[in-house]
Amino acid sequence: MKRSSTLLDAGAIALSSLCLLHCLALPILAATLPLFGVWAQAEWVHVLFVAIAAPLTGFALWRAHRQQRLPAAAVTSAALGLLLLLAGAAEWPSHESETPMTVTGSLLLAATHVWNAWRRHRH
Predict the structure, then answer these.
(1) Using CA atoms, how far apart are residues 74 and 84, in angstroms rounded to an integer?
(2) Do 108 and 79 meet the contact criterion of CB atoms below 8 Å apart?
(3) CA separation for the pair 6, 12 (Å, rounded)
(4) Is residue 1 scored above 60 in pLDDT?
(5) Angle, CA 70 vertex, CA 69 and CA 73 arms, to 5°
(6) Is residue 100 reached through a cis peptide bond, with omega within 30 degrees of 0 on the bond before it?
(7) For the chain, which residues make up each domain, given as ranges?
């Protein structure tokens, strides 16, 4: 069989699978959107995210540090990100600061993880 035929078949299978996934998942997602809206306003969701993020970040940093010593900037960035997530979840110092603090903390954590993955791939 020619390579172009194989690629066309694989592409057709992939597109058909995406179509099936879209057709099945979209109604379920649409039906659950009100539930997601309620969860987005629930305070326990923020606490749960921090409770998941803290040990995962700690474990990831610990493993990275064991393989090769981490610069202080990476540890500081991750710690600051976690502290901002925690402060946002606790609505400290105010409810109005929750979103900017949470977004900044998430971006710091994500940037630290991306940097660590890049560093690991490079070495």
Answers:
(1) 15
(2) no
(3) 10
(4) no
(5) 150
(6) no
(7) 1-41, 42-123
Statement: the pTM of the whole predicted model exceeds 0.70: no
Task: Write out pLDDT tens, residues 7-66.
Answer: 777 777 787 788 777 777 878 878 888 887 777 777 788 888 889 988 988 888 888 888
Token pair of 65, please?
């540090």
**In the block, residue with structure tokens 């109005």:** 96
HEC assignment per residue over the chain = CCHHHHHHHHHHHHHHHHHHHHHHHHHHHHHHHHHHHHHHHCHHHHHHHHHHHHHHHHHHHHHHHHHCCCCHHHHHHHHHHHHHHHHHHCCCCCCCCHHHHHHHHHHHHHHHHHHHHHHHHHC
